[in-house]
Amino acid sequence: MGNLFKDFSINNESLFLNEHMLSYDYQPKLVPHRENQQHFIASCIKPLFEKRSGKNLFIFGQPGIGKTVSLIHVLNELNEKTDEIETIYINCWKKDTSHKMAIEICHQLGYKFTHNKGTDELFEEIKTRLNKKSAVIVLDEVDKLSDFQTIYNLLEDIYRKCIFFITNDKKFLIGLDARLKSRLSLSELEFKPYNYEQTKDILNERKKYAFVKDAFSQDAFEVIAKKSHEVQDIRTGLFLLQESGNIAEEKSSKKITLEHSQEAVSRLKNYKIKIPLELDEEEKEIVELIKNNVNKDILEIYEEYKKKNDKSIRTFQRKIKELAKNKVIFLDEVISKKGGKTYNLRCVDKKLVEF
Ligand SMILES: Nc1ncnc2c1ncn2[C@@H]1O[C@H](COP(=O)(O)OP(=O)(O)OP(=O)(O)O)[C@@H](O)[C@H]1O
Ligand SMILES: [Mg+2]
Among 227, 232, 242, 311, which has the minimal tally of Cβ within 10 Å of its Cβ? Predict the structure, then answer.
């Protein structure tokens, strides 16, 4: 037998058991420490069981503290309980216009023929289908929505429903059209950050299933729980768990030690888990360009940008600086093809930031 592969082993010594349990959109079976909020949400839905309309709810709180995961949990339980209530979940960051929203609702209702149809036409379908039953509609990241036509339509034309709005931005409500606000008659529900014990418990639950038994040393874990509590964001904790595992594996270690989790924490500085600021259309376009042009320098990206935008290099550079300052992108110093100093542009890890 040759020895070409003698140093390779089938990778059965991974420290990870179920790595996907650390991904941000993994839906855990249980969502502990949000029981009160979930009961309150359920109470808003209760009237639908009696064929009456439910309560609309404005849900707010800072990033990474279990708003989305709690709402999805409630929808899942509701779907298990009854077929008489349709559940719709929309991320308004991804579906940011009435038209995109209408298409998404159609798809969730199992109606596929949305191609080439206008928003009004789509809404007719939605209306017919939803009014056969009751509906719970969750509009997550609702502050990212660019127009409210579909919300108006839902309010006016769907008889028995609950609409839940989720946002980080408490002020969103103040800016909302008075007419819309008065018709919605929203109750409010605030999610407050978890305390240390809760943070630790939630992360411990994820760690238990994500890693091989006893792979994670206790002191390494505590560093992560502390950091996650300090920044009041579970997502950061999940990122650190994963990153510590990666670092330990890179070093072929059989255990994840304090040193590994400390290195993961130091890497954290380079990432922005979620962008708190809103990007305008131009900035979004630049970020897209950077994503699609890996390893290009600032001038090369500008050449691409110029094809569609009549903007000076100065204006472009100013935008780039602003994006870099907010850690949406990074500038890596490199030597240009001509020998001078220039910068390559890089986007943060796609896993961490969704645009
Ligand atoms: N109580 C919990 N139990 C289990 N996992 C949780 C809990 N709270 C949060 N998480 C996990 O933390 C991550 C962030 O939670 P979630 O996505 O619900 O945050 P969010 O409040 O919706 O944040 P954002 O405002 O940024 O959307 C998710 O991966 C989620 O699974
Ligand atoms: Mg969320």
Answer: 311
